[in-house]
Amino acid sequence: MLNSNPSRIMFGLSLTLGIIIATSSNSWFTSWLGLELNLLSFIPIISSSFNSYSSEAALKYFLIQALGSTIILISATSMWLFMISPNSLILAALFLKMGAAPVHFWFPPIMQGVSWAHCIILMAPQKIAPLVLASYTITSPIPCYMIQTSSILSALVGAIGGLNQTLLRKILAYSSINHMGWMLAAISLSSNMFFTYILIYSIVTTSVVFLLYSNQIFHFKQMSSISNTKAKTLSFMALFSLGGLPPFLGFIPKLLVINSLTSANQFLWLTPLLLSSQITLFYYTRIILTTLTLHSPKVKTPVNNKMKSPLYTLSFINFTPLLFPLMSFYQF
């Protein structure tokens, strides 16, 4: 699943370094340099001379991220020339970079064009730097309203957009947009809550992606080709955990956000997030029912050779709160 090419390892390290520089710097210019290092490291990772789709996705990703970086540079001139705060313009650029609604249009096509391993990077680590930088712009009411609006739109767009999808990469892309709404709420409430959310979301997403990769599933109808009982059970737990259904692992970060928004009396913000989660659970349930109830005898190549991988057991982590119920409430 992962390429051990030395050049890919080097670009992976520089990608991580870019995230660290962007999130830990004390100036916007250094943060911009960290974002650019992250971008220039990710493009060689996802591009491939043997796959035209990945090359197209790399070009689209570069153009979108370059546009976001340009907007950040333009915002600096607005402060110098017009003496106005550039936070709103910077925040709009960061929304574009992270793929939050209403500027989410580029995210599903790029997800469809990259490999499963690159999907994991695109859905989780690549969102850390823009989200952390977005929290630095909350110094006036306008950025707060922008984050709240984008959070609600991302939750609704991610939920509704995934209903008519049959390609699993696009379903996961819209699911990631939906989770973006929850992440924006978490980062605006507490940085510790956000890092808890992104950590658990990364683990749950990795478990789902590895199950799909292990069984070579790319389309909704291919879910019926899973004949192994263990794989069916793990798929059931992983998808419901990604949807945030209690008492699976994915419910814990959502529970933290729900508790914080309730304590802050942000019910108008919380209600769309909860409604969108019900919609996402609907198309997760549709996938699970296909896996559990249908069976396709026309499987030409068995997938048992990948069932023995140690990473396959990662999906059992979604079962953790069921084994230790008190872990779900340790924050309270």
Automatic annotation (TrEMBL):
Annotated InterPro entries: Complex_I_Subunit_2, NADH_UbQ_OxRdtase_chain2, ND/Mrp_TM
Stored Pfam families: Proton_antipo_M
Molecular function per GO: NADH dehydrogenase (ubiquinone) activity
Keyword annotations of the record: Electron transport, Membrane, Mitochondrion, Mitochondrion inner membrane, NAD, Respiratory chain, Translocase, Transmembrane, Transmembrane helix, Transport, Ubiquinone
Domain (NADH:quinone oxidoreductase/Mrp antiporter transmembrane): residue spans on this chain: 25-82, 88-279
Catalysis: reaction(s): a ubiquinone + NADH + 5 H(+)(in) = a ubiquinol + NAD(+) + 4 H(+)(out)
TM stretches of this protein: 61-83, 89-107, 119-139, 145-164, 194-213, 234-255, 267-289, 310-330
Entry annotated with the keyword Phosphoprotein: no
Gene Ontology biological process terms in this record: mitochondrial electron transport, NADH to ubiquinone
UniProt keyword Hydrolase present: no
Highest rank taxon of the organism: Eukaryota
Enzyme class, UniProt record, top EC level: translocase
Membrane topology of the entry: Multi-pass membrane protein
GO cellular component, one term: mitochondrial inner membrane
Cell location: Mitochondrion inner membrane
EC number of this enzyme: 7.1.1.2
Main function: Core subunit of the mitochondrial membrane respiratory chain NADH dehydrogenase (Complex I) which catalyzes electron transfer from NADH through the respiratory chain, using ubiquinone as an electron acceptor. Essential for the catalytic activity and assembly of complex I. Core subunit of the mitochondrial membrane respiratory chain NADH dehydrogenase (Complex I) that is believed to belong to the minimal assembly required for catalysis. Complex I functions in the transfer of electrons from NADH to the respiratory chain. The immediate electron acceptor for the enzyme is believed to be ubiquinone.
Family that this chain belongs to: Belongs to the complex I subunit 2 family.
Protein name from the UniProt record: NADH-ubiquinone oxidoreductase chain 2
Species of the source: Alpheus japonicus
